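User: Sequence in, structure out. Go.
Assistant: Echoing your sequence, followed by the structure tokens.
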Amino acid sequence: MLNKCPNCKKITKHTNGNKFRPFCSEKCKLIDFGAWASGEFKISSNKNESEYDENL
């Protein structure tokens, strides 16, 4: 199965042989991981961050 790398949009095989899937390379995989780790990407929520702190 062929698909586009989520980072660079290069066409890549989505198979068990591609250890970086769905990315085309380790570099693209790490760029994506860095975006999540830095807060550039996040999952939206109806609650604001202060509501979570109140439950601690």
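User: And one key feature?
Assistant: Strands lie at 2-4, 11-13.
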